[in-house]
Amino acid sequence: MAKSSLYGRRIHIAGSIVADPAIAGAAEVKSAQELVAALVKVLIKRGANFVVPVDAEPVRPADGLPICFDWIVWKSLFDNLAVRPADVPGPLAIAVQHYKSEDQIPSAYVELWDKLRSGPHVAIENAAHWNMASKRMEAQARAGDILITLGGTEGVLYLANLYHAAGKPVIPLDLPLCPETTGSRRLYAFGLTSSQTTRLFRTAGDQDAHAWLNRIRFPARQAIPDRVEQLVDLLEALEPPRAFAVRLLNPKLPEFAAVEAHFETVVKPIIEDELGYRLTVIDGQQAYDHARIDEEIFAKLHKSSVVLADLSGVRPNCFLELGYALGRGHPTMVMAQEGTPLPFDITTLSGLLWTDSDTLAARREAFRTHWQAIRNRPPLVSAEPLIS
User: How far apart are CA 247 and CA 314, in angstroms?
Assistant: First the structure.
């Protein structure tokens, strides 16, 4: 069986139910809870990872139902550890918490949490001493790859904007858990305008994102397993995260043939087939989303997940795009053909110097090794706040 496109990708399920039972009835809330638990189980089997907050569990005054879904996610993760494939990269869950979190964990989940946090399945990300929802959401959005929303209010909209700004997909569900004018339902209505759907998410190949959005509208009569199946099918159909290529593209220059061969035989097979990214090259041969090629380049560079900058040929545009990537704080791999005359401040970035005289196997292994060494390298300039 082919490996799922969700293998190792971090899913973030976020939202809440409105306090008024007249808007979100008990039956609708129970259905949403069952959907979340069942979805998590299927995603674990597919090799997905998760981003989950750790916090208190507020309940609705009217009926005592939990407002959020976070501890349903944690319980489903715990209950289904046995079905997770053995070789999935990374921890099963990134737990985002603040300094008061440990004291606010619901008593019903303390034992579950202690077992998870003491094992290899959970990595804890602390939002420093900020007991602020916005700071925790920023940490969640940095860690997550895909956002799925249901219910919610301004917090869901804020999270969606964070994911969108980073070029990450947002999948809104139109479940009756909040008013139609806010939260996930507002996002869903926004995406129903066909020209806006691709601002929420893009699908691979010739699949239609707008058609997919209509497929996950989920009428009340639709059974939970069918809803989960359609939602997972959409997640599998999403366009992979983008790896933007900064490289020599002029075939008239002497270094072009070697650079082209390096990307076709080394970079592309590893980035796409092994790591699950989509290599993006803007060379004028693709359909544009924007009116000008410079806008196309920087819009896609801005919302890429990683950047692969090859400076062979010492082209000024490549240095400009590399500078943008470094300023943006993207994970950036700097490369050049051995012998390329690089400026001093580029050589200090510890890039990969490759040569086409090595065997293909050796070149690929050097690329893998260097990527693992620099993929989590901090940005050039710290973005630390004045006080935390």
Answer: 9
> Which structural domains are found in the chain, ordered by start?
10-237 (3.40.50.450), 242-374 (3.40.50.450)
Q: Rounded to 5 degrees, what angle do the CA atoms 23, 24, 26 make?
A: 135
| Interaxial angle between packed helices 183-191 and 154-165, expressed in degrees from 0 to 180 and rounded to the nearest 10 | 50
Give the pLDDT confidence of 127-167 residue by residue, as tens digits: 765 557 888 899 999 999 999 999 999 999 999 999 999 99
| Angle made by CA atoms 318, 356, 369, in degrees to the nearest 5 | 75
CB 37, CB 44: distance < 8 Å: no
Beta strand 242-246 with 10-16: parallel, antiparallel or unpaired?
unpaired
CB 80 within 8 A of CB 62: no
Q: Which residues, 6+ apart, have CB-to-CB distance to 287 below 8 Å?
A: none
Residues in Cβ contact with 335 at an 8 Å cutoff, skipping those fewer than 6 apart:
262, 308, 309, 310, 311, 312, 351, 352, 353, 354
Residues sharing a CB contact under 8 Å with residue 20, sequence separation 6 or more, in sequence order: 62
Q: What is the pTM of this model?
A: 0.91
Average pLDDT, the chain: 93
Are 46 and 232 contacting, i.e. CB atoms less than 8 angstroms apart? yes
Number of separate helices (H) and strands (E) present in the chain: 16, 11
By C-alpha distance, which of 141, 78, 147 is closest to 111? 78
Terminal CA-to-CA distance of the chain, rounded, Å?
47
Look at residue 21 and give its three-state secondary structure: coil
**Where would I find the beta strands (DSSP E) of the chain?**
10-16, 49-53, 93-97, 122-126, 146-151, 170-172, 242-246, 278-280, 306-310, 332-337, 352-354
Contact 307, 333 (CB under 8 A): yes
Cα–Cα distance list, 156 to 15, 151, 187 (Å):
6, 8, 9
